[in-house]
Write a structure and sequence with these properties.
This is HIT domain-containing protein. By secondary structure, the chain is of the alpha+beta class. Helices cover 24% and strands 20% of the residues. The longest helix is centred in the middle third of the chain and has 17 residues.
């Protein structure tokens, strides 16, 4: 169910639990500021999630409140993850849903990295 990205951070969300080691994840990359892991329900040949380690509900929250080091570390983690999974040479798509209208389902910023196949149009009609 889509969430309201203006609500306070929920420490019980699935990504917070993964970061605390309470739930397993198939890690692709980890740094001081980010964790990347395979999506449990992939929508493409390559489907990896990249999340900041800080408690940020959405891109809006992250861009307004994260430190410069967190922002740089997260953006670099997305690029490094694309290279690690081999998506970079053929091209890839990044998707970050923010709020109900976009269909955000987990109240922790996450970027979907899709690749490994032709991805079609930007938006489904």
């Amino acid at each position: 169910m889509p969430i309201d990205h203006k609500q306070p951070y929920d420490e019980s969300n699935i990504f917070a639990r993964i970061l605390r080691g309470e739930l397993p994840a198939k890690t692709v990359f980890e740094s001081e500021h980010a964790l990347a892991f395979h999506d449990i329900s992939p929508a493409a040949a390559v489907h990896v999630l990249v999340i900041p380690k800080g408690a940020y509900v959405s891109w809006d929250d992250f861009s307004a409140n994260a430190s410069d080091a967190e922002i740089a570390g997260f953006v670099r983690a997305v690029g490094e993850t694309a290279r690690i999974v081999g998506a970079e040479p053929g091209g890839y798509r990044l998707l970050a849903n923010t709020g109900k209208r976009a269909g955000q389902e987990v109240p922790h910023l996450h970027v979907h990295l899709f690749g490994g196949q032709p991805l079609g149009p930007m938006l489904a009609r």
